[in-house]
Design a protein that fits this description.
With about 200 residues, this protein is of the alpha+beta class. The chain folds into three domains: about 5-65, Nucleic acid-binding proteins (OB fold (Dihydrolipoamide Acetyltransferase, E2P)), CATH 2.40.50.140; about 70-135, DNA polymerase, domain 1; about 155-190, Ubiquitin-associated (UBA) domain (Helicase, Ruva Protein, domain 3), CATH 1.10.8.10. It has helices at about 30-35, 65-75, 85-90, 95-105, 105-110, 120-130, 155-165, 170-180, 185-195, and strands at about 5-15, 15-20, 25-30, 45-55, 60-65. The longest helix is centred in the C-terminal third of the chain and has 13 residues, at about 185-195.
């Protein structure tokens, strides 16, 4: 099992990262909360990882904080929640926000996440209430947006939202609603996701 990787980022295309560790490039799928915490330069990065093995693929997920990985693993134990949905949940709200919504039984807030319908939200609340006690007491540091390379930031943001489970038309509408020329890809994605979770 690969539990942690430390190296430098060769490329970022949300939700994918290419992380070089001693000459080996690892493709890592990460939530937007991790993208916000990545350094802007060529500094070394440490990611806590979870390897998911299926018949048709081996997928490596990476997280900036152990707490996010722990929540991801708990989400995978919920009936009907796979890696893609768990990643979308961690991209759409922080672990603290998720915990608060589950503890308060806020179905409406959870259904704003991509791929989460009313039944899934209710299942998350029922199955996650007790499990979340393990995460209580830990604080999440605020992550600063990362400067991405100049380019078609809006198109990249739409692609990232589609990869997180939003329909293309919906992702495009979300990005258009928050688009400003000075925002980079990660900032656009963050603004689009915050616009849907308010």
């Amino acid at each position: 099992m690969i539990g942690l990787l430390r190296g430098r980022i060769l490329s970022r295309q949300p939700p994918w990262l290419l992380l070089e560790v001693n000459g080996v490039g690892y493709e890592v799928e990460a939530p937007m909360s991790t993208f916000y915490d990545l350094p802007a330069g060529d500094e070394p990065v440490t990611l806590y990882t979870h390897l998911m093995v299926r018949d048709d693929a081996h997928t490596l997920f990476g997280f900036a904080r152990e707490r996010d990985r722990a929540l991801f693993r708990m989400l995978l134990k919920v009936n009907g929640v796979g890696g893609k949905m768990a990643l979308a949940i961690l991209s759409g709200m922080t672990a603290d926000e998720f915990s608060l919504n589950v503890q308060s039984g806020d179905v409406a807030a959870l259904t704003r996440l991509p791929g989460v319908g009313k039944k899934t939200a209710e299942r998350l609340i029922i199955e996650m209430r007790d499990r979340l006690e393990k995460l209580e007491g830990e604080s999440l540091p605020a992550g600063a947006p990362v400067t991405a390379k100049a380019g078609a930031a809006d198109a990249d943001a739409v692609d990232a939202l589609v990869a997180l489970g939003y329909r293309p038309a919906e992702a495009s509408r979300m990005v258009r609603a928050v688009f400003e020329p000075e925002l980079d890809t990660e900032e656009l994605i963050k603004a689009a996701l915050q616009g849907t979770t308010k």
